[in-house]
Amino acid sequence: MDVSQLLKGVLDLAVLAVLDKEDGYGYDVVRRLRLAGLDGVGDASVYGTLRRLYNQGALTSYVVPSDEGPHRKYYGLNDAGRRRLAESGATWRGFAATMTDLLGANA
Amino acid sequence: MNTSDSKKDSHDAYIAELRHALADLPRAEVDAIVEDVTPQLADAAVAEELGTPAELAAELRAAAGFPTGSTRRTLTARIALWVLVLATGTAAYGGFISNQLLSNDARYSMPVIALVLVASWFVVGQLGRDVAAVEELPEVRTARKLLFGAASSRMLGTLRLVELGWLLARFPLILIGTLLLAVQFGWNSGMAGVFAVAVAVVTTAAGYRSLTDRRWLWLSVPAGAWAIGVSLRLAVYLSLVVEGHIGYVNV
Fold first, then answer.
1. What's the helix, strand, coil split of chain B in %, to 5?
2. Where is the Transcription regulator PadR N-terminal domain (chain A) (predicted)?
């Protein structure tokens, strides 16, 4: 099964979950998603998702200077983002449980 | 030093191309995206992952829910097509009324044609070299299928000859039509003649160039329609001559 297709539907949730643990800048979020096991995630998809979540009012952003290179724009969850994470997380758990039941002993 | 200079150059070029690919988005949004991407671009170890600026822009648009580049491309192409249709219709009508002595229609047709030419110019500027976008529009494909059906490539070669022949045939028609129109404005015959020759030469050159660079169609096709309008008018005039109603030139 093509994981990248599945990922499209849940990338919002994955990004929210990563940022809930700790604020991060663009490529940092990409790296942490891959470390968590989502190695098929596309860089540009993460950048686009961050911008969409930000424009929808789920994230805050602030700039942090870096010694090594250009400054980094960090994103973090605000209250709306945390509410959304809770709602989407509940939806996901319900969905995952349904699928697990459905597959039962056959899978 | 040299290496870091050229690295900076390619970095700047990448950002410039990315900005260009996102140019339809609000300025602040493009700035924010560039700010997000820059740390990765500056890190040689992971910069390659971003792909080309066009790929990055396309995938980012899809994930962010921004209008895709192709939506915008189709919209521009559609506007260009309708401006072409409008320009062609206006020019055909302008050609048909070009000898109506002192008629208001003929007087108004000049500024309207000028306006349509400006619109053509603007639209082709927006379209750039991407005339293929117009050819890919579903309405254009359908029209083409209806007109040419299963035209083979050999037939298309013949079509090219027909196009060249038409360029020659329409030259005198454009000349006459423009001359008639210029006279309506009270220009003396010398000035009107020079103007008419200039218009005929420019539109013929545009037609010739349109064989290789399709952007010139936006000037050449209305010019052809103008010639058809003029020849219709001449046909009406000649038929009246034949029937013996020649006493009055304003037909």
1. 80, 0, 20
2. 15-87
**What are the tokens at B186?**
């009270």
Taking one residue from A and the other from B, the number of pairs with CB-CB distance under 8 angstroms is 76
Q: Nearest Cα to B86, choosing from B40, B120, B129?
A: B120
Q: Which two tokens stand for residue B108?
A: 């108004």
Helix (H) or strand (E) holding B145: helix B138-148
Q: What is the phi/psi pair of residue B109, to 5°? A: -65, -35
Q: In this structure, what CATH number is given to the domain that contains residue A82? A: 1.10.10.10
Q: What is the pLDDT of residues A71-106, one digit of tens each?
A: 999 999 999 999 999 999 999 999 999 999 998 866
The domains of chain B are located at: 2-67, 73-243
Domain extent for A76: 3-106
Do the Cβ atoms of B64 and A48 come closer than 8 Å? yes
| Residue B98 backbone class (left: φ over 0; alpha: ψ -120 to 50; beta: rest) | alpha
Bridge-partner residues for B138, per DSSP?
Answer: none
Angle at B198 between CA B193 and CA B200, to 5 degrees: 95
pLDDT value at B150 more than 80? no
Return d(Cα B18, Cα B31) in angstroms, integer: 11
In the numeric block, the tokens 């000028």 are attached to B114
Q: Which of B133, B124, B134 is nearest to B215 (CA)?
A: B124
Which of B15, B35, B36 to substitute to test the interface with A, most A CBs within 10 Å?
Answer: B36
- Closest-CA distance of chain A to residue B54, Å: 11
Sequence-distant (≥ 6) Cβ neighbours of residue B186 within 8 angstroms: none
Closest chain B CA to residue A52: B64
Domain count, chain A: 1
Provide the token pair at B181. 């129109």
Name, in order, each residue with C-beta under 8 angstroms of B126's C-beta and a sequence gap of 6 or more: B76, B79, B80
ipTM summary value? 0.91
**pLDDT higher than 80, residue A37:** yes
What is the model's pLDDT at position A33? 96
Strands A59-64 and A24-25: unpaired
